[in-house]
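Bit of a strange request maybe. I'm writing a small parser for structure token strings and I need a real example to test against, not something I typed by hand. Could someone generate the tokens for this chain?
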Amino acid sequence: MAIVWQQIAAVVASGDAEHLGDALSARGALAVTMEDAADEPLYEPPLGTTPLWQATRVTALFDASVDFEAITAEVGNALALGSAAWRITPLADQTWERVWMDRFEPMRFGERLWICPSHREVLATDAIIIKLDPGLAFGTGTHPTTALCLEALEGMALDGADVLDYGCGSGVLAIAALKLGAHSALAVDIDPQALLATRENATANDVVEQLQAQAPRVVMPASADVVVANILAGPLVELAPQLASAARPGAELVLSGILQAQAGEVSAAYADSFAMQPPKVREDWVSISGVRRCGG
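Reply from user aminoacidic:
Good idea to test on real output. This should exercise your parser:
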């Protein structure tokens, strides 16, 4: 294959990462990504924030004809990056989306719920299939927390239920609930990209008329028969009063995005309003279920 792209990357401190990304974009980068350069996971960012790693690798994709010496010299001078800081990698022309999608296989959750990319097929006659391709928003079922939530939903009697999916990401949990028989789903997220992805995925799965996607409200009425939230432990603790207020008496609760060591704190935050069950564990992550108390 012909070399038609060049990828350049540099590792910088978190405070310089966005400046570097902006500088590369201003000089014609077709895409800019940022990733952890020193194995420093960010488990608990505060609500509404997008923190970066102390050592952040900024990678930019350019057309191969770009003058990289000029770009790295100009940007390097502005950010005090020497020539040794840059890594330039030639890339052959490929359909990158297809390369990624070819690695994404159908996945089963419980007895009959499947997530299947558009280029694959599920042959099981009793399959309930969610059509979902990898995209920008989190949530394709590959992460243990998403899998735990999908399995919990698959085990519920959802016929006619009204579902709240708080922190919806790709909308996969709300869509799964609707495909499993729920009457309606309210998908909530602070990220506009997540809401867009949720609506697009709902359309692809023929449930868009039953799904409402919106930013969070300060007060939510007690209108949900099922509340599912796959976010992180800190936000889950903060949101306990809101999620409790959204649940009808007898409503089922599923929480995930929780590390094993955090399960006790999260469960305690909901214990006054819900009869909580022991956590279910997968790898280092857990999900916690409960049932809304009457008058709690």
